[in-house]
Design a protein that fits this description.
With about 130 residues, this protein is an alpha+beta fold. Helices cover about 45% and strands about 15% of the residues. A four-stranded mixed β-sheet has the order 1-2-4-3, sandwiched between helices. Helix 2 links the parallel strand 1 and strand 2. One of its GO terms (molecular function) is RNA binding.
Amino acid sequence: MEKRLTGKMKRMLRAKAHHLKPVVWVGKEGSDKVIKEVERQLKERGLIKIKVRKSALLKEDKYEIAEKLAKACDAEVVSVIGHIITLFKPREGWGRYLSKKPKKVKKDEKIVKLFEEFKRSIKKKGE
């Protein structure tokens, strides 16, 4: 099951993470060496910042590192700003954070329903 946080949830998580300091650093050894530490920190805190050193960027792009860490730890990338990656993994499970149907779809369904009723009422008047 693919995890997708809504934009509002990501914005809220970015605001919560603003004051946090990085707790994990990815160095020249790459992201493979730090996966266990990232998992441990996510289990303990839920929302963490990771600092990517310049030496790690010689081998991989920062976005690739973020995706690799998120996939390995079953987490979601909240943001990648500069050399800082913010990851989120809820301690109580993903159930309540997974986005359901977008609200826009519900509005579109209502509009279609109202339009169909309007067409029916016009046909009745014409008969």
